[in-house]
Amino acid sequence: MLTAKETSNLLNISTVRLKQILKNDESYKYERTNENNGLIKIHPETVRKLLQERNNFRYPKTAKKIIFGSQKGGVSKTLTTLHVAIRLAESRGCRCLIIDQDFEGHSSSFLLPENISLSETKTLYEVIKDNEPIENVVLETRYPNVSIIPSKGLNRRIDKLLTTSNPKTLIAKLIKPLEKKFD
């Protein structure tokens, strides 16, 4: 039997994350010992199962929203967003959604595959203006587990559509149907 620390090192995840995984699935077998401050020992069959499933680990369904924003230009909002999303998707298997709100659409043009033309895509502007279902504007990117709601020049007009709505609550309502699909 391996300890939680040894197993987490083997799986390349934190011990906290390992404990979450064990707690969320009753089929995993482990023992909590009374000596050594409640050390967790994991059965070999569970370790084998975890090793087979490690690329499919999903975080608990408490989707996290990370926002990078600043009114000042050139502070690496786009670059930081791209690096964090791609890294979370690659290293942890998180399903990430980027909502590009930059009028220039650099994230969109960088992430979208070459066969998708940015000029033909729909954006958050169409979702608000035409009551387009938000699921219709989410596009897969060149990176596995990373999707995007693209942006282009039309997004400059969103503020004119929001004369009666609070933008924060409106966007939160709009993305609600997507929360189960993304981590």
Computed CA radius of gyration, to the nearest angstrom: 21 Å
Strand line-up across the major sheet: 1-3-2
Taking the alpha carbons of the first and last residues, their distance comes to 31 Å
What class do helices, strands and sheet pairing give? Answer: alpha+beta
- Total beta strand runs: 6
Fraction of helical residues: 25-40%
Measured by DSSP, the beta-strand proportion falls in 5-15%
Write structural notes for this entry:
The structure is a single chain. The chain has 183 residues and is α+β, with helices and mostly antiparallel strands. 38% of the residues lie in helices and 10% in strands. The protein has 8 helices and 6 strands; from the N terminus they run βααββααβααββαα. The chain has helices spanning 4-11, 15-24, 44-53, 77-92, 106-111, 124-130, 158-161, 167-175; strands at 2-3, 30-32, 40-42, 96-99, 139-140, 146-149. A 3-stranded antiparallel beta sheet has the order 1-3-2. The protein has a 3-stranded mixed beta sheet with strand order 4-6-5. Strand 2 (30-32) and strand 3 form a beta hairpin. Helix 1 crosses helix 2 (15-24). The chain is elongated and about 65 Å long. The two termini are 31 Å apart.
